[in-house]
């Protein structure tokens, strides 16, 4: 029982750290870029990774964790792939409308499901796919506005989706197959991620913003926000590897869209961003999708697993219920199950659905 509680607390702690640090860094960076006029996103990310590596180096020297050698080729490829992922996402934002960029981020989940199904023989049930679909629809309603297409922007978005998806799958696979911790993997790969962004970041930012990061006038308040952003980034990078290692790439993406909903909420509350009934509807639909994903993942994992440890998806469900308190009981869970089953039965029996299924 103690082992189960420790496992639950560990995963819930990782989820909470990921959400809290990610929302914090978005708010910090939004103030830095929008209010203080510091537009160099890719260069800032390279600084994040360098500070992360330096922090882990000090922690390793103080024996907070033990460095574990990993095959150099694996680390270099993994580090460069993750660096390229960040670069392509920033380029996608630069060459596309915000709405198309949000669609790019939404496309990562179905592409991850496709890759894991084809190459890793992982099975996703209809109910899991339906809950993910509901989540994506909700986030799309809440965050996607204009959709303007162009060839270069589309190619960059596709590259961003592929590199992000493969990078996150590798984050999970390397930790499990090589038996390394999230801290050990991040410590080994952060220098390569930082290096590729440190070299390409200033050029990329200058191309996108028409400004030179080295000629920027760094006021004390800008420097203060940059330092704060780098400190928060240490927790963001650490929790990202931790969550993907303890759960899965798809679960991490689900958590990422929870962060999107929270950022929209905090933006309205703290920064007085515009907030419409469409945002509220989208967030509610997305939260329902998250709860259903966690609920059905838990239900399916219970059939596969035995022993005392709860699957990570069940811990995610507990975490969601802590963020969004609600009354739960066996009757409400049964009602939820029956409700979704009725939806699936409707689509299976409805002639209109059969006609358009071809």
From TrEMBL:
It comes from the Eukaryota. One of its GO terms (cellular component) is membrane. The chain crosses the membrane at residues 38-58, 70-93, 132-149, 155-173, 216-238, 277-296. It holds the Pfam family TPT. It is a multi-pass membrane protein. Residues 21-294 form the Sugar phosphate transporter domain. InterPro entries: EmrE-like, Sugar_P_trans_dom, TPT_transporter. Keywords: Membrane, Transmembrane, Transmembrane helix. It is found in: Membrane. PANTHER family: SOLUTE CARRIER FAMILY 35. This is Sugar phosphate transporter domain-containing protein. It comes from Rhododendron griersonianum. The lineage of its organism: Eukaryota, Viridiplantae, Streptophyta, Embryophyta, Tracheophyta.
């Amino acid at each position: 029982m103690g082992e189960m509680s420790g496992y639950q607390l560990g995963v819930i702690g990782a989820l909470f750290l990921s959400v809290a640090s990610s929302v914090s860094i978005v708010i910090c960076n939004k103030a830095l870029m929008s209010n203080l006029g510091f537009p160099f996103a890719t260069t800032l990310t390279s600084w994040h990774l360098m500070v992360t590596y330096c922090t882990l180096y000090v922690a390793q020297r103080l024996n907070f964790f033990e460095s574990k050698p990993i095959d150099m080729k694996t680390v270099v490829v993994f580090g460069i792939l993750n660096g390229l992922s960040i670069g392509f996402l920033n380029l996608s934002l630069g060459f596309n409308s915000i709405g198309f960029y949000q669609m790019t981020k939404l496309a990562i989940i179905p592409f991850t499901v496709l890759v894991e199904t084809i190459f890793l023989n992982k099975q996703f049930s209809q109910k899991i796919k339906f809950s993910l679909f509901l989540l994506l629809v909700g986030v799309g309603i809440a965050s996607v506005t204009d959709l303007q297409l162009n060839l270069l922007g589309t190619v960059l978005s596709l590259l961003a989706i592929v590199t992000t998806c493969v990078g996150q799958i590798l984050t999970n696979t390397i930790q499990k197959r090589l038996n390394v911790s999230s801290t050990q993997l991040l410590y080994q790969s952060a220098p390569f991620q930082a290096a590729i962004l440190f070299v390409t970041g200033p050029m990329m930012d200058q191309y996108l913003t028409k400004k030179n990061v080295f000629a920027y006038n760094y006021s004390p308040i800008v420097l203060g926000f940059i330092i704060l952003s780098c400190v928060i980034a240490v927790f963001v990078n650490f929790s990202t590897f931790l969550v993907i290692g303890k759960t899965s790439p798809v679960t991490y993406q689900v958590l990422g869209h929870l962060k999107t909903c929270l950022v929209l909420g905090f933006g309205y509350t703290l920064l007085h961003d515009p907030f419409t009934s469409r945002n509220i509807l989208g967030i509610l639909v997305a939260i329902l999708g998250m709860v259903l994903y966690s609920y059905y993942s838990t239900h399916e994992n219970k059939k596969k697993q035995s022993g005392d440890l709860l699957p990570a998806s069940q811990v995610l469900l507990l975490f969601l219920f802590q963020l969004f308190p609600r009354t739960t009981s066996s009757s409400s869970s049964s009602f939820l199950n029956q409700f979704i089953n009725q939806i699936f039965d409707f689509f299976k029996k409805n002639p209109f659905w059969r006609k358009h299924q071809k």
